[in-house]
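input
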Amino acid sequence: MIETGLSKVSIVKHIKNWNEVGIKAIKDHRGGSEAKLEPEIVDDLIDVVLKKSPIDFDFTCHTWTLALLALYVEKTYGVKVCNETIRSILISHNISYKRSQPKPTKADKDEQEAFKKNAKTARYFRVFI
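output
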């Protein structure tokens, strides 16, 4: 008998799945779902993050959060997305929703200037080029 590292229950499940759907049973279902958002929605989301405030959409806070952006997408387009999807979209467009850490006043001036040149600030987010 070959050692598979799987439990008996898992092996039986795989066999039943193979008997039901055949070769399609070997599809790997790990790794999350495919992107749900259309490119137009993503473009609008990036535009909203960079140029608008939550107040413009009748939200009660002044800064965007991942949950608030997911709620915006759901209200505007009727598509439910999780915070992780919004986070990955922001990261793929070089947008960080974290605040940068302040540097001490005795830090290297050239390093500070290089940081300032690479950061383009938007109204509520910092975009790194």
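quick obs: The chain is about 45% helix and 5% strand.
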